[in-house]
Amino acid sequence: MACDLILVLDAPSPRDIAPVLRLLGGKVRWAKIGLEMFTACGPDCVREVAGMGFDIFLDLKLHDIPNTVARAVESAARLPVRMLTLHTAGGREMMRRAVKAQEQAAPQLLLLGVTVLTSLGENDLRETGVGAGPEAQVVRLARLAVGCGLGGLVCSPLEIAPLRAQLPPAIKLVTPGIRPAGAGGGDDQTRVMTPAEAARAGANFIVVGRPIFKAADPAAAAQAILTELKTV
Predict the structure, then answer these.
(1) Domain boundary assignment for the chain
(2) Can you give the pLDDT of all 232 residues of the chain as single tens digits?
(3) CA-based, 20 to 30 A from 56: which of 4, 40, 50, 95?
């Protein structure tokens, strides 16, 4: 199964990381724009990064009442976006309405359901009233999301194997919590794997930011990950 690299743009503006983006253009296909950048500069940042040749993964983790999320999906569909996230914890009706909006506004847009954030462990879930451990909760939310029509999921690498065992093979799995060997600590990620480990487990995409941007040579760090993925 082929696995691709998504570059995380952890910055307020594309201009703040423009030299690295120019270096990586043509090497890395995908770029993830999250809340920090989208809140700072809005839809213009999506258009700017897309204009540099990247496919855009817009990671907004939508979570609201069904009508609001459906309208947000319609709005995102007007942008040059290939993937968009929403929280599976928003429930069945929210996800169904989001899928309906996506199918009508942008059939090519892949909606991804966020299950359990990679920063959360069993104690964190317990504090929020979830009695199940991360794996059981991820599987529960994933099955609900797929039943609602979502075409992909975001999960930690530790949950890839159980999801692959229970979900249709066409479901795309996007995996944060990736730390290349020798990249140091996991920062706020608690459930992590190396790129090769995640690819072998069955990830379609791995999401990497700080290990690339904090490297002395970001282009070389990204190329090393791409090379590692090709060996799987």
Answers:
(1) 4-230
(2) 689 999 999 899 999 999 999 999 889 999 999 999 999 999 999 999 999 999 999 999 999 999 999 999 999 999 999 999 999 999 999 999 999 999 999 999 999 999 998 788 899 999 999 988 889 999 999 999 999 999 999 998 889 999 999 999 999 999 998 988 665 544 554 557 899 999 999 999 999 999 999 899 999 999 999 999 988 7
(3) 95
Q: 206 phi and psi, to 5 degrees?
A: -115, 145
Give the span between the Cα atoms of 26 and 87, in whole angstroms: 31
CATH topology (fold) of 4-230: TIM Barrel (3.20.20)
Q: What are the φ and ψ backbone dihedral angles of 21, each rounded to 5 degrees?
A: -60, -40
32 belongs to the catalytic site: no
Q: How far apart are CA 63 and CA 211, in angstroms?
A: 29
The pair of three-digit structure tokens given for residue 185, joined into one six-digit string: 């600590």
